[in-house]
Amino acid sequence: MNNWQPTACILCSRNCGLLVQVKDGHLAKIRGDQRHPVSAGYLCQKATQLDYYQNHADRLRTPLRRKADGSFEPVSWDRAIAEIAESLLKLRDAHSSDCLAYYGGGGQGNHLGAMYSSAFRDAMGIRYYYSALAQEKTGDFWVNGQLFGKQNCHISEDVEHADCVMFIGTNPWQAHGIRNARRTLKQIAQNSNRTLIVIDPRRTETAQLADIHLQLRPGTDAFLLSAMLAIAIRQGWEDQSFLQQHTVGFEQLREVLLQVPIDDYIHRAGVDSHQVYEAVRRFATAPRAAVRVDLGLQQSRNSTLNSYLAIRREAPRSTCTQVSVGMRAFFSDELCP
User: Fold this and answer.
1) Reported confidence tier of residue 105, pLDDT bands at 50, 70, 90
2) 122 — pLDDT class (breaks 50, 70, 90)
3) Is 231 helix (H, G, I), strand (E, B) or coil?
4) What average pLDDT does this structure show over 33-50?
5) Suppose 168 and one of 199, 230, 237, 261 were both cysteines; which one would form an S-S bond, judging by CB atoms 3.0 to 4.6 Å apart?
6) How many Cβ atoms are within 10 Å of 332's Cβ, its own excluded?
7) What is the H or E stretch that residue 195 is in?
8) How many angstroms separate the CA atoms of 124 and 219, rounded?
């Protein structure tokens, strides 16, 4: 029981390093790996419960096959694999491989699916591949492709080093997704020279630590973010040097933002106007600023537009070059009169 084995958590994109002791098929003990170059021993509540997820009482212990009456009966692994393979081959032979699609792999935490699924899909000739990211991040990927020329080119936020951090539709205290989340959030909140801004309808744990919490009405993210961008433009807080060197189409975008009815959009979002202006000022004038978003923004109303607006807030800090900033096509008539 003194033999600690190194591994990593796969429950979010951070993949924190762990040390575990295994006994009788269980993770008997779990602790953070101090030698891990990123997490450096940090451990969140998700990782401490890995054995619970691995050995949950409701987890299937054997494959189950549906019977004619709708109930299930246990079958062996060999039997299950053989019958599944036979059914897939029959479908492919009868309807071509285009009738098949593969779903699996989270894309952020569990990367094993990419290894074993690619060989399977190649063997079967399957073109269609879906994962959790296809549901959660479709709009975000599409925006990346339009702005940066590649769907897999995206902005990586440097939250732990930023002077001003804006969290939109995410609660890293529970969901993590940033380096050593709770420790990092506490460090930002306790430093009087740094600003923590949260945009979220809920008073989350992260919002409770914030210097400014914009508690907007659900589904009004696009209105609020449009207003915030418009404020930055009208105040002259955009980075003109960066925009001239690394973007195309900014003048068209600027004209669109100048048409935004700021007061009306803030009213629709249901937040305090003075707080909005202060949040924009702090973010725009900070030496180093970062935006972190997640599913609260990307799975709500106007989700694709939300992703565009969030990236526009971050783009001046981006390392991608020749960013396209065209915006008109994203706006409905209601959002862009």
Assistant:
1) low
2) very high
3) helix
4) 88
5) 199
6) 9
7) strand 195-199
8) 42
**CA count, 13 A, side-chain hemisphere, 226:** 32
Question: Two tokens at 103?
Answer: 């779903």
Q: Taking 60 as the threshold, does the pLDDT of residue 168 lie above it?
A: yes
- 326: which 2 tokens? 């065209």
Token pair listed for 106: 């989270």
* 307 vs 24, more confident: 24
What is the model's pLDDT at position 276?
Answer: 97
pLDDT of residue 24 exceeding 80, the answer is yes
Q: How far apart are CA 317 and CA 239, in angstroms?
A: 9
The length of the chain, given as a count of residues: 337
Q: What's the per-residue H, E or C state across the chain? A: CCCCEEEECCCCCCCCEEEEEEECCEEEEEEECCCCCCCCCCCCHHHHCHHHHHCCCCCCCCCEEECCCCCEEECCHHHHHHHHHHHHHHHHHHHCHHHCEEECCCCCCCCHHHHHHHHHHHHHCCCEEECHHHHHCHHHHHHHHHHHCCCCCCCCCCHHHCCEEEEECCCHHHHCCCCCHHHHHHHHHHCCCCEEEEECCCCCHHHHHCCEEECCCCCCHHHHHHHHHHHHHHCCCCCHHHHHHHEECHHHHHHHHHCCCHHHHHHHHCCCHHHHHHHHHHHHHCCCEEEEECHHHHCCCCHHHHHHHHHHHHHHHCCCCCEECCCHHHCCCCCCC
Supply the pTM of this predicted model: 0.76
What CA–CA distance (Å, rounded) separates 197 from 311? 16
Instruction: Report helix angle 273-285 to 262-269, nearest 10.
Output: 110
